[in-house]
Write a structure and sequence with these properties.
Layout lengths: L1 H6 L2 H13 L3 E2 H8 L3 H13 L3 E13 L1 H9 L2 H11 L3 E3 H8 L3 H14 L2 E6 L2 E6 L7 H12 L1 E3 L5 H12 L3 E13 L1 H8 L7 E2 L4 H6 L6 E2 L18 H15 L3 E2 L5 E3 H4 L31 H13 L14 H4 L2 E3 L4 H10 L5 E10 L11 E10 L5 H15 L4 E8 L2 E11 L3 E11 L1 H4 L8 E7 L1 H8 L12 H6 L5
Parallel strand pairs: 8-9, 10-13
Antiparallel strand pairs: 1-7, 2-6, 2-7, 3-5, 4-5, 11-12, 13-14, 14-18, 15-16, 16-17, 17-18
Helix pairs in contact: 5-9, 6-7, 6-8
Bound molecules: phenylalanine.
């Protein structure tokens, strides 16, 4: 007891005193009112008191009902069925539906609701007369539980479900279904003195003076020797706060940016609205390539046509498509159309952005990347979005090889935390050789991420590029899902506030 006495702090004493005075269980909010202490202080102190066996903490669930906007309106004006009934009574107790609907002043929606409830509550008989619906009051009903409850809710703001009679509680459900009220569940914490606590308080305790701020004054004067310094309790409960923060998706994009910047790359961006020329033609994709078809690519009505780059480049590209021009290729052997190349689309990959950049910067060395949005006409499901991000990049330099490409991607993946990386032969119309990369993820197996390769001469020669260009590009969302533990890609962009709050900043 001696020991306890020494340790008791002012806040704890105040709580014990309040509990002793009330001789009953008190909720945290009761204690707030009684002691004037704030919520967190009481929670902290009660954790300590309960650990010392001086109080017992209890948790109970309480359901609160509160009025929704429509509920407020109904309390003011009366439930629609009540208003309809009043009109019916005013009209002499019986009326045709068309007459009634003219007289009530209810909206069509409320009129339907009113008719439904009048029928359900059995307030009136429905008959047919001369092909017309006739309503007849059965009895003049007294105020229902639902109407009473709405009034109480309006006066009190909210009620605790456990304080209501059985009938009233049933009424809560029906009012909730009508979306007039909202039910909210809360955990109520309360405290009660234990025997030890009662003894302690009745034996007349004194409070220790504790210092929580060690000042220079205390040190200089040497008084610190005699003061009791308050100990830090790093496990003390605190209120959860949700400060503004960066969205997890942007957080990961920034991390990817950071990695490429560290590897010596520069970030580039390009337009979302692209010409078919940069998205397809410059990448040696023939104009009848299936990927250009409507079901994959979004074509724009406004603006309908795009500007093409300088004539020289357009001519080189067109000849390359037709007969291979000076690239050493035989080309595709068809008549290339400027009109098709000028079509405007939403870019389907960010390779449109790197190729654009390459045309403007044909001389080595170039190391650029982009993490940006692309669009495809996909049916949305747990795996597919119509608007998503791609991670893209190129390296332009003398003597760079496929090994450098694999090395760069391996470094990138390792920095992201993927240790096992493998490369497989693959195919893209604009690279030769082409590879696909997969990474191993515990619990998932091997996952495909970026496609890549060395741009074909049919792509580089028309732009005046004389050295090898390493290129890669791939989806971002799958990475994000792995990182964030999501199984449905749509969850990334639902902006579910709870999820955003729960997701730590460093995931
Ligand atoms: N553009 C390709 C895609 O969208 C990826 C890719 C980029 C492949 C660059 C090779 C070179 O899947």
């Amino acid at each position: 007891m001696e020991n306890e006495q020494r340790k008791l702090r002012e806040i704890e004493l105040r709580i014990l005193k309040a509990l002793n005075k009330s001789k009953a269980e008190m909720t945290i909010s009761d204690l707030e009112k009684e002691t004037g202490l704030d919520h967190v202080a009481i929670i902290r102190a009660s954790a300590w008191l309960s650990e010392k066996g001086l109080v017992e903490q209890k948790e109970t669930q309480e359901v609160y009902a509160e009025l929704l906007r429509e509920g407020y309106e109904y309390v003011e004006q009366g439930l629609p069925e009540r208003r309809l009934l009043n009109t019916l009574v005013k009209l002499g107790g019986s009326a045709t539906l068309s007459h009634l609907s003219k007289e009530t002043g209810l909206s069509d929606k409320d009129l339907n609701i009113a008719l439904g409830w009048i029928r359900k509550k059995g307030w009136a008989n429905f008959r047919k007369r001369d092909g017309e619906n006739l309503l007849q009051v059965k009895e003049s009903p007294t105020l229902g539980y639902d109407e009473e409850l709405l009034k109480v809710l309006k006066d009190k703001g909210e009620v605790e479900a456990s304080r209501l009679s059985n009938e009233m509680r049933k009424t809560l459900d029906s009012l909730q279904k009508r979306e007039l009220i909202n039910m909210r569940q809360e955990t109520i914490r309360s405290l009660i003195l234990t025997e030890a606590g009662t003894k302690l308080i009745q034996s007349g305790v004194s409070v220790t003076e504790e210092v929580s701020n060690l000042t220079s004054e205390l040190i200089k004067s040497g008084k610190w020797r005699d003061t009791v310094l308050r100990k830090y309790d790093v496990e003390a409960p605190v209120i959860t706060i949700y400060p503004g923060k960066i969205h997890p998706v942007i957080e990961l994009i920034n991390e990817i940016r950071e990695i490429f910047l560290d590897l010596g790359f520069t970030e580039i961006r390009g337009p979302f609205v692209e010409s078919a020329f940069w998205n397809f033609d410059a990448l040696f994709q023939p104009q009848d390539h299936p990927a250009r078809e409507m079901h994959d690519t979004f074509y724009l009505k406004f603006p309908k046509t795009a500007k093409l780059p300088n004539k020289q480049i357009v001519q080189n590209v067109s000849k390359t498509h037709e007969n291979g021009w000076e690239t050493g290729s035989t080309g595709w052997g068809y008549k290339w159309s400027t009109k098709v190349a000028r079509q405007t689309i939403l870019r389907t990959h960010t390779t449109a952005t790197t190729i654009r950049y390459l045309a403007e910067h044909p001389d080595p060395p170039v190391k650029v990347f982009s993490v940006d949005r692309v669009y495809r006409n996909e049916k949305l499901d747990y795996k597919h979005l119509a608007e998503f991000f791609q991670i893209e990049g190129i390296v332009v330099d003398e003597n760079v090889t496929l090994r450098d490409l694999m090395g760069t991607l391996t470094a990138f993946y390792k920095n992201l935390g993927f240790e096992k990386v493998e490369f497989w032969p693959s195919y893209f119309p604009y690279t030769e050789p082409s590879l696909q990369s997969t990474v191993y993820v515990e619990g998932f197996g091997w996952i495909e991420l970026c496609g890549m390769g060395i741009f074909r001469p049919e792509v580089t020669v028309p732009l005046g590029v004389k050295v090898p260009v390493l290129a890669w590009g791939g989806g971002f969302e799958r990475l994000a899902m792995l990182r964030l533990g999501l199984e449905d890609v749509r969850d990334l962009y639902r902006n579910d506030l709870g999820w955003i709050r729960r997701t730590p900043t460093l995931f």
